[in-house]
Amino acid sequence: MLLSRLPLLWSGLLMVGGNVRIRSATKSDLAAVEDLLKASDLPTDGVRDNFSSFVVADDDGAITGAIGLEKYGSVALLRSAVVSPDHRGSGVGRKLIEQLLERAEEAGVDELYLLTTTAEKYFPRFGFTRTTRAAVPDAVKASAEFRGACPDTAVVMTRRVGETVRGRA
Hints:
The chain is 21% helix and 30% strand. By secondary structure, the chain is of the alpha+beta class. It has 4 helices and 9 strands, in the order βββαβββαββααβ.
């Protein structure tokens, strides 16, 4: 394995090989994240309101991935997990999810939920399992994603926080 492909923790930023780094989103990243979500046919409703809890993948100034956390007491919604087509398969998505899981644990989240129309086979490697909409706490159901940004046909998944954080390849 090439040394440059190994993740490095440096100056509070998680390096993912090459020049890609995982970092907290800033206000100036919002338009790029919304564009990336739209290009991937993912909803943007509620992104602006919760952007302070987003994490992005930054490749020399270009946003190539993002993921968000909407916290509702001890439960939260993992939302807007997206990676640009040219960075898929490079480990960026895995690092974004791992970083979000670590931050959720630090924030005192006990249970995470997500909705997906395309990645129900991807998230189990991070400990997510399918559940029903009825099992989702009311606070999470009140989010923009559950109120209509994601279709009723979206798969609902959940995961306890604090369990194994590292994704399986």
